[in-house]
Amino acid sequence: MVIRSRLKEVMEKHDPKLSIRKLAKEVNYHFDSIRRMYKDEMVQYPRDLLLKLCLYFNVQPGDLIGIEEAVDHDQVTDKLISSEGNRSNVLD
Question: 7-50: per-residue pLDDT in tens?
């Protein structure tokens, strides 16, 4: 299980034309922090950022971040390869 940002989805639902830069100006927060959250690259979610985004979008913190199943990319790759035939044929 991992915590994922849902900022991208919230922004698109609120206003599909809203840019990261405009949002950063609107909530008076660092562009890089907003960008990292949008791209789900943020390691820690500052409470002041979550508060500003919740107030701006009129949502709860759970709308901005949530717990999801982690995707094991190696498992997905193995399943794709096995569905196309045996692995040695694919790598040859």
Answer: 999 999 999 999 999 999 999 999 999 999 999 999 999 999 99
Give this prediction's pTM: 0.75
Between the alpha carbon of residue 72 and those of residues 19, 38, 78, 79, the distances in Å are 31, 22, 10, 11
Q: For the chain, what is the domain count?
A: 1
Helix axis angle for 7-14 and 47-57, nearest 10°, is 20
Domain that holds residue 82: 2-91
How far apart CA 47 and CA 52 sit, in angstroms, is 9
